[in-house]
Write a structure and sequence with these properties.
Radius of gyration: 16 Å
CATH class: Mainly Beta
Shape: globular
Number of strands: 9
Low-confidence stretches: none
Strand content: 35-45%
Order of helices and strands: EEEEHEHHEEEE
CATH topology: Pnp Oxidase, Chain A
Distance between the termini: 30 Å
Largest sheet: 7 strands, antiparallel
Mean pLDDT: 94
């Protein structure tokens, strides 16, 4: 097998596309597409998301101490593309795209109802890694479409068509 140097930025792709939703201290809701996201502990369950400090949601997440990771399916492509290419600075993009919001159970942030899985997280730590601040979130509650939840409560990821 011949090998050659590859692009650093995409070395761990493919990975599921996620939308991170949050709420500011003033009650304002927002969501953004996040490229860097993954599990970082199973006991206790934790995930990590990377947010560029210049993003509108950065301050909301930093101040609120929580966020929700929403896994995007192929049915969410239009919403994912829109939320990833527009800023809240220019208007209420959640309203403009017609995103259906629900309330999280354990954290003060909205969930994106049309995404098949929503993972509520409380920030326990963060580290600046260059271009991004990586927020480590303790998983507080997981919502999943009922048809995806197995009898033992595991999520059937094979039945999902993630972006």
């Amino acid at each position: 097998m011949n090998k050659k140097e590859a692009n650093f930025k995409s070395c761990l792709q493919p990975a599921p596309k996620v939308l991170v939703s949050c709420r500011g201290k003033n009650g304002e809701n927002n969501a953004l597409a996040v490229a860097y996201c993954g599990n970082c502990s199973y006991d206790p369950p934790m995930v990590m998301v990377g947010i560029v400090p210049s993003r509108y949601s950065y301050k909301m997440i930093k101040e609120s101490g929580c966020f929700v990771v929403n896994l995007a399916s192929k049915e969410n492509k239009e919403m994912f593309d829109y939320l990833g290419s527009h800023s809240r600075r220019d208007g209420d993009k959640l309203k403009e795209i017609g995103a259906r919001l629900g309330e999280a159970v354990k954290v003060n942030a909205p969930i994106l109802e049309d995404c098949p899985v929503n993972i509520e997280c409380s920030i326990v730590d963060s580290i600046v890694t260059g271009s991004h601040e990586m927020f480590v979130g303790k998983v507080e509650y997981v919502h999943a479409a009922s048809e995806l939840v197995k009898e033992n409560k595991d999520i059937d990821f094979c039945s999902m068509e993630l972006l």
